[in-house]
Amino acid sequence: MALKYLKDTEVNINNIFIITGDFNIRNSSWNPNFPHHSIYRDTLIDIADSFLLELSKPTNCIPTRYSDNQYDLNLVIDLLFFRLGSLEHDNHSIYLDWHLISNYIPLTVNIVIFEEFIQSKRCTLVKNSKEEDKFIVELIEATKRLNMENIQSKEVLEHIVQTFTECTEQIWYKNSKIINITKYSKAWWDENCHRDLDDYRHSKRIEDWK
User: Fold this and answer.
1) pLDDT tens digits for 91-131?
2) Is 130 a member of any domain?
3) Are 152 and 205 within one domain?
4) Which of 2, 7, 111 is closest to 49 using CA atoms?
5) Is 94 found in the same domain as 171?
6) Do the strands 177-180 and 121-124 form a parallel or antiparallel pair, or are they unpaired?
7) Structural domain contains residue 113
8) Is residue 126 situated within a structural domain?
9) What pLDDT is stored for residue 35 in this prediction?
10) In a 10 Å sphere around its CB, with 0-12 CB exposed, 13-18 middle and 19+ buried, how is residue 64 labelled?
11) How far apart are CA 25 and CA 22, in angstroms?
């Protein structure tokens, strides 16, 4: 029923990297001891393909579910799908000695998480502040001092652009202030917001809060 729902329904789930679980489908494609082909196998593969996923191959081909009954076969019904083209994640391992009292054996894979730089501070100028006015005035003066009377080559133009870039950067850091980026940081917060919040803190009137 779950497979039919996923196949017949347009499911908008983007950027899927991994799908795993007990799919409860016996098939010769992933269980060499099972000689038959299941129609549900094709449906499952089609669904995975629609999410740009492909079946992962285990590094050790052993059953993933062990029966309590000695007359029943052990099964491979737990599967893992990875995003297409994930060369570093094209297989997984099955650890028989990790199942403890469970009938199911854990499937494991190492997913590499690359180190990422997260910026915690930034420079900013408060809109309509004295610092912003000073930045604009100094930038205009620096632009006026640029010598653009004799631009006869690409090299001269590039030098002027580089000089302007360096001047802009120096004036920016001179007039801006460093703030910490937090989950409460709001790009729209300005001096007017500070003033109105202070008014409310003093008056405690609902009209000032609004």
Assistant:
1) 888 888 888 888 898 998 888 777 777 777 888 888 889 99
2) yes
3) yes
4) 7
5) no
6) antiparallel
7) no
8) yes
9) 85
10) buried
11) 8
Quick check: is 115 in a domain? Answer: no
Q: What is the pLDDT of residue 183?
A: 64
Task: Render pLDDT for 124-153 as a digit per residue (tens, 0 to 9).
Answer: 888 889 999 999 999 999 999 998 888 999
Does one domain contain both 185 and 90?
A: no
* Residue 139 sits in the same domain as residue 194: yes
Sign (positive or negative) of CA dihedral 141, 145, 146, 152: positive
188/127 Cα distance (integer angstroms): 9
pLDDT the model gives residue 195: 87
**Mean pLDDT, rounded, for 152-157:** 92
At 188, the amino acid letter reads W
Q: What's the domain range around 184?
A: 122-209
The percent of residues in the chain predicted with pLDDT above 90, rounded, is 27
Last residue of a domain, one of 73, 108, 143: 108
**Whats the size of the chain, residue-wise?**
210
Q: CB neighbours of 175 closer than 8 A, spacing ≥ 6?
A: 125, 131, 132, 134, 135, 138
**Would you give the DSSP letter of residue 103?**
S
Distances (CA, A) of 142 to 82, 136, 165, 178: 55, 10, 11, 23
Report the 3 state secondary structure along 121-149: EEEECCCCCHHHHHHHHHHHHHHHCCCCC
End position of a domain, from candidates 58, 83, 108? 108
Question: Do 126 and 102 reside in the same domain of the chain?
Answer: no
Q: Residue 104 carries which DSSP code?
A: B
What is the count of structural domains for the chain? 2
